[in-house]
Amino acid sequence: MKKENSMIQALSFLxxxxxxxxxxxxxxxxxxxxxxxxxxxxxxxxxIMMETDExxxxxxVVKQVVKQTGRLAEYLSVTPxxxxxxxAGFAKTIERGDFDKHEISRFFNINHMEFLMISSNFDELLRxxxxxxxxxxxxxxxxxxxxxxxxxxxxxxxEKIDMETLEDKELDRYQFxxxxxxxxxxxxxxxxxxxxxxxxxxxxEEKNKNLDFVKxxxxxxxxxxxxxxFYEICDDFITACRRESDVESTLNDIYDKMxxxxxxxxxxxDERNELQRAGLIEVTQGNMFSNASLxxxxxxxxxxxEEDFDLFDGEKERNQSLIYPDxxxxxxxxxxxxxxxxxxxxxxxxxxxxxxx
Length: 357
Prior knowledge:
The chain has helices spanning 3-18, 24-29, 59-76, 80-96, 101-108, 112-116, 119-127, 149-156, 173-190, 194-207, 212-220, 224-239, 247-254, 258-269, 274-277, 298-305, 309-312, 337-349, 352-356, and strands at residues 131-133, 145-147, 245-246, 281-284, 293-296. By secondary structure, the chain is mainly α.
């Protein structure tokens, strides 16, 4: 049997042995992790030992735990202690879908002060993307975590893990604005404040501050809410079939307060918005302002698209369902006498002087 084919069996064995093991097996796996002291036994602990009891773990079991943990550590390219914590996280993920640091403590039956001695190893699993923050809610303040789905599926399908696929890849400008757009949609869905949204946008900018597009936008020194609106318009330019953002729905998604939505809408209507004054966006009017749309200007497209500007310029931006005047070939037309007379009258009335009259 291949190594990866037996890893799920190793996990199963280790989860049974390590659960409620206190510090004993962890010290066998990573000697010196915890101080050598006698832990007091609680009266209701099902594994309380009397002096006449046999050792809690037979030497053969301890040896097998150490061996299987070493194999798991090699498989994940982590230390044996980190592999031990991974077992607890994997078991809790299978049991309840997510876990936090307290759940890991309870799994081993160690107290929170003892967990502090191994918490840096938990953090390293997070840094390596083997554990991930639970992003079921983008704005949740709970510190729940999950096993990376790539890692989990590899174990369940008996596949070798390509650890490089877990590493963070640098976002390009399209992925960046799409991530901001996801935040905006989550804000409205989860009914959180615009303040929280803007804080998350600032965090995203900080994480991607080396991206040329982000550098240029930050250099203009717009307020964060103005930058957020610009990112959303940029994402709509890429993803929306009409390459424009509906004013009403966009402002509803970004702002939780009606009064602020109205203030921003009025600023856009009166062409006082910072993005308009910078020449980056313009408003295309509908029958009413609520039906108007926000679009990137040529300057805005250059800022966002950079070297890809030519791919979206000119003909490529035209709606393919329309026939444009410059594409209609001139052709001589012949009509019967009565129709020709009516067309001539119609043409005469379109002359500027007649039309005004």
